[in-house]
Amino acid sequence: MAALACAAAWAARRERRPRAWWLAAAxxxxxxxxxxxxxxxxxxxxxxxxxxxxxxxxxxxLAAAxxSLVRSSRRAAVGFAALFALVEVVAFDAFLIEPHWLxxxxxxxxxxxxxxxxxxAILADLQTDEIGPYERSVFERVMAARPDLILLAGDYVQxxxxxLRRRLHRELRAALQEIGLxxxxxxxxxxxxxxxxxxxxxxxxxxxxxxxxxxxxxxGELRLTALAVEDSFSRQCSVEPSDxxxxxxxxxxNFALGHVEADxxxxxxxxxxxxxxPGIGPxxxxxxxxxxxxxxxxxxGQGKTLIVSRGLGMERGPAPRLRFLCRPELVFxxxxxxxxx
Length: 341
Fold this sequence. Notes:
Mean pLDDT: 95
Strand order of the largest sheet: 1-16-2-3-4-5
Shape: elongated
């Protein structure tokens, strides 16, 4: 990529015409796409290489074009400079700003099945390989809100080295103990698809109840059904109705396509797409639900509400560590009696 970028810039500079620079930029951008597709570690690895190619080498060619054309074609130079600025602004936002720019969303729901207002905190996809200031600040914000119930929708750490993963479990457990993550009606966690078999070690000696298999809990006026990760991915998932206000908590929102009789369905997994484009929405959701369901609040009819969190972290491993137009999200549900103003 470096060799091609230099060669393309040298050839375009010799011609001193805007068209040559456009061809050079197209060649560099196209080669980045081809190399990323051929050399990347599956889809996420390809996206990471493509990000290097476009935000690095392609941006360098655009900058060189702007400098080279400033005397011979000022209009073209301004165009290339604007493109370079746009690419770098996107990169700055996606890699340095949005990943830790937490959005706190408040959702209000009413129900005739409850008699006292309740606050429910939803945390999904912490998905980190470092328990640092950002991760700790999320837990502190949850506790500052004093929720009545805390729901954790899976994917807590993402680390492929066994020793490092065990260390992360210890660090996450220590942070939860120090901050005292808890709620009057309890805190409940389900497994995510990137969580290893030892994922529950992160919650040993904390106030978090973990569910590795599908099971239900009577929590005050609520019935909480926590899904096994396999059931959350199943479009044939079935949950029987309850006279109580029923919450079904799963990692992947696919279960919302099944026969789930619940008042509130809660999931994560999609990261809201992690990258969203204006007028298009999420490019990838890695789920079977309609794209419009992949983030936010969706009324499913028959008194059902689906909330899919954009998550707190981002994809790790070979994936590019970025978010674009898709900030991480902490959700608080204000559940109030139907008669409340």
